[in-house]
Specification:
By secondary structure, the protein is an all-alpha fold. The protein is 75% helix and 0% strand. The protein is built from 20 helices and no strands. The two termini are 22 Å apart.
Length: 515
């Protein structure tokens, strides 16, 4: 048993380190450094670097969520991973060199180029992480998101603490670490029977699309526990996206204050990263054991008197930190600490929760985590852009009122509205039920495969057979012939001691009931 856990532990470490590299690079591109070293300042000028990256990332995610452009972007993401993202690092260092050697180049053009190069690459890498983490169990991937995010924030903190101007450019090499981990996880997890990693998203889309419309013997199969939560999952997904937009707007409005020349400086960012690391540590304590270990539940309640699981507790904690920042802004400003830093730490906590939720919605919505990640981040960054622009408009309004106080108040109300009315604790509890139903079906498939000693390919075909997929549809998903699928199905029937598809489905339902 201990020997069997070694590959899993190794994969978890790679996922944490790689995702940490990706998060540190993301934080650096959003909050560290700027090409504007002139005396010219203004609302859009001070926020140009942030807006360029956000605009490009939101557009890329929106394209990734569309069927037509998705295959090309997935292929581009695979190419970026195969070359260890070295072209990205080279391009960013060339922009830094041009800025130093040719000061006559307009800094705004350099900022736009940086936003284009980094924004597209970050979006592609995040989608790749969505695919890789989405293939792991929820109980494993959710803790990895929090630990990796904390690692990324810690790296940024130490770089910010370096008393050297421009030290943040050291983080430009981190995409190579992210790509290395993605390659290592892809090779160790492997696409079955030689299927390319790029096909994983297509197979997931096929699973989602084929949930309805297949039949056995001319009639649809009886509903199973795996199909029951589909409608509820769609409603929860809509609520999550709506809340995501509002959180993005609120954060963008606050960033409109913190991105100014006289706003959050190096010390404030240090506070943000330290608070976020402490938040992740507190969130991981909610698991009551070693996060990521066997038996740990990331979403389901861990006790009979609990309504939500550790992720629900992490959600509450992030909102508390974010709202606490809003409330404490005047007090913190009086002692020389930017209240925006606390709000931003809470936002990073919400960000980690949302990443986990996007992975979960991809799992219970048909196994397509890439599409879920793309849809969610497109909404989040679109909301963040809107918030930054709203902050600029409010700040430009004539009058004697305090624009900063107005923005903080509006953002705080928006966050509370999202938490109380859009995606609430009750929705998190409902999500736990849907996840439990999905997990039960997956556990039944694993138990049947283990008991019947099915091969790797047979174990992959089993869930589709239990859902009543036709042999033609299964063959299309795995890019194999129908005759090969028929052969696998006959072997599955023989090993499971059944003779027909309906008997196999009955066996699956019986196993789920026993579980």
């Amino acid at each position: 048993m201990a020997h069997a856990l070694v590959p899993r532990v190794r994969q978890a470490r790679r996922a944490i380190v790689g995702f940490g590299c990706n998060q540190a690079f993301l934080f650096a591109m959003l909050y560290l450094g700027s090409f504007n070293e002139s005396a010219q300042h203004g609302f859009l000028i001070d926020r140009a670097d942030l807006l360029f990256v956000l605009l490009v990332m939101a557009a890329t995610f929106a394209l990734m969520a569309r069927e037509r452009s998705r295959r090309r972007l997935v292929a581009a993401a695979d190419g970026l991973v195969r070359c260890y993202a070295l072209p990205l690092a080279v391009a960013l260092y060339l922009l830094v060199a041009l800025h130093g050697l040719m000061p006559g180049i307009p800094w705004l053009a350099l900022a736009a180029a940086e936003g284009l190069v980094a924004g597209v690459s970050l979006a592609l890498l995040l989608c790749q992480w969505g695919r890789v983490l989405g293939e792991a169990s929820i109980d494993q991937s959710v803790p990895e998101v929090f630990i990796g995010s904390a690692l990324g924030a810690a790296v940024c903190f130490f770089v910010v603490a370096i008393p050297v101007e421009g030290a943040y450019i050291l983080l430009y090499v981190l995409p190579a670490g992210s790509a290395w981990a993605l390659r290592a996880l892809g090779e160790s997890g492997g696409a079955a029977d030689g299927a390319a990693p790029a096909d994983a998203a297509e197979r997931a889309e096929g699973r989602r699309a084929s949930r309805d419309g297949d039949n056995v013997g001319g009639r649809g199969p009886e509903p199973t526990a795996a199909d029951a939560p589909t409608d509820e999952a769609a409603k929860l997904s809509g609520r999550i996206v709506a809340g995501t937009v509002v959180y993005g707007v609120a954060t963008g409005a606050v960033e409109a204050l913190g991105s100014s020349a006289e706003g959050a400086g190096t010390s404030s960012l240090s506070v943000t990263f330290v608070l976020f690391v402490l938040y992740c540590a507190a969130a991981l304590q909610l698991y009551g054991g070693r996060p990521g270990s066997l038996g740990v539940r990331a979403v389901l309640p861990t006790g009979p008197d609990q309504e939500v699981g550790p992720l629900g507790g992490a959600y509450r904690l992030a909102i508390l930190l974010m709202v606490g920042g809003f409330v404490a802004v005047p007090l913190l400003e009086s002692v020389g600490v930017s209240g925006v830093a606390v709000v931003l730490a809470g936002y990073l906590g919400v960000f980690s929760v949302l990443v986990s939720l996007f992975l979960i919605m991809g799992r219970i919505g048909g196994g397509d985590a890439v599409r879920s990640i793309a849809r969610g981040f497109a909404a989040l960054f679109a909301g963040e852009i809107t918030g930054v622009l709203i902050g600029g408009i409010v700040g430009a309004l004539p009058g004697t009122f305090d624009a900063s106080a107005a923005l903080v108040a509006l953002a705080g109300v928006a966050v509370m509205y999202a938490y109380l009315f859009l995606f609430t604790d009750r929705d998190m509890a409902a999500l736990s039920v849907v996840v439990a139903q999905t997990d039960r079906f997956e556990e039944a498939c694993e138990l049947i495969a283990r008991t019947a000693k099915l091969s790797k390919r047979e174990a992959e075909i089993l869930p589709l057979a239990l859902r009543g997929r036709t042999a033609e549809r299964i063959a299309g998903e795995f890019f194999i012939s129908k005759n090969t699928v028929d052969t696998h199905l006959r072997r599955i029937y023989a090993k499971c001691g059944v003779h027909t598809r309906q008997e196999l489905i009955d066996l699956g339902e019986k196993t789920e009931t026993e579980l």
